[in-house]
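assembly run, all chains below
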Amino acid sequence: MPDADVVLEFRDVTVLFDAVKALDNISLKVHRGETWVFLGAAGSGKTVLLKTAMGLVRPDAGHVSVFGQEITTMEERELFRIRAEMGMLFQESALFDSLTIEENVAYPLRNQPGREVSAEEIHERVVDALGFVELEDTLDKVPSELSGGMRRRVGIARASVTNPPLVLYDSPTAGLDPITANTIMAFVAKQRDLKQTTTLIVSHRFQDGELMANYVFDEKSAALQRPSNGAAPAAHTVFAVMKEGTIAFQGTQEELHRSTDPYVSKFGGQT
Amino acid sequence: MLDFLKPPFLAFQEFVIVTGRAFKNLLRPPRYWNDVLMQMDIMGVGSLPIVSLIGGFSGIVMALQMSRAISQYGAASQTGTFVAITLVRELGPVLTAVIVAGRNASGIASEIGSMKVTEQIDAMRALGTDPSRKLITPRMVALAIVLPLLTVIADFVGLCGGYLIGATRLNISAPQYWNSAQQALELNDIAQGLMKPFLFSFAISLVGCFYGMRTYGGTQGVGRSTTQAVVVASVWVFIIDVLVTQIFVSM
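ok done. output:
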């Protein structure tokens, strides 16, 4: 693919926490429209990788560029402009507990620089975004009144209310029962397929990646379905397995299945 | 030895950076005035009952303690003078600040600390707001406004407490008490009595924010930050008190 299509690029990125390498010399290129699924054990650097992509963590070495702009040396003020083009669902959602659900979802519209949105339009877009995750009746509730799965859905609404072309999901299904987890993944796929976003997902569940690689969101039935002609979904899915701050594996689902590396194959779903 | 000294020095350096940024934020928009008002309500109005109560009791205790000593010298009529000077110069500002440190440095540290460990601080940055502007500066400004006001109220309630003892135990008339109190206070005392809480407020709010922001390690970490914030803020209140008193005494 031409480099103009590169949405996110890591070049030899190292992140240190004290003396520990949270990310160790990582290089990767995410192209427009791709879905990346990062698997790996806890503490393998998956969350740090997403935060580094957002400029929330600064690399100690190497370069990160987003939409062709180098963000490694950017000031926080300029970073806000870049982050406005990205959405992120945090682990455990990270909703602001002092604000209502409506205020939470409206937060990026009200606070991101360069957005002049009227109060009515904000309300409209918040209702739309909450409707997208089927939670339009929770506007006046506060996060503590919602279940874990609902909070995750509000998190998705908040990450996508600005229609960012790049969305990052940090463990969207962690700590949820399988049924709720599948519902959440359906909304992640819906966001990807209906709004054509480039998607990065961090997970410890292979099934999440499997869903993203083989299913598409069908608008009519409002559910995940395998593409009818047996073809792979339009969005190309890349699997990456992380181990102690490095990328131990990178490739397609079939390549992941074929991997004989004992660590990588643990995340390959072929057990 | 050097290894032992390194962490506190690094922490202090970090504190200075946080403080510098909090002040710098005042110069450039965006400024979150609504948050300032909300914090003034939470910290100022919220602390009013306890601050008045403690102020009142300290006035009562001061007058009680002095009543015996000064009536021996036949100086009971000077009760107002003693109460006014001790309260306005020293007890009012320090007691109010220590109570506010206990109540609000802990409140700030635990609130910001919980936000830190649940990634809300990161979410704030991801969604277009600088936590230093949105959380730290409003708390700093709010406390700098309300702490001197709280101190004035504590002083006044304390003087009333002193009068209560004067009137009931020493038979001092109202004009006698209030006149002596008023005459005792010079501009220097009042300046000192207002300058102290103004300076204390920065120690309390910034220490609270600082410990909140460097919270790590889940709910246990929040507890640790909260305790540290109260202890360190209270110690700073006394250090600043000594420095300011020294300046005013030598003036």
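The radius of gyration of chain A is 18 Å.

The CA atoms of residues 110 and 118 of chain A lie 9 Å apart.

not gonna interpret more than that til we talk
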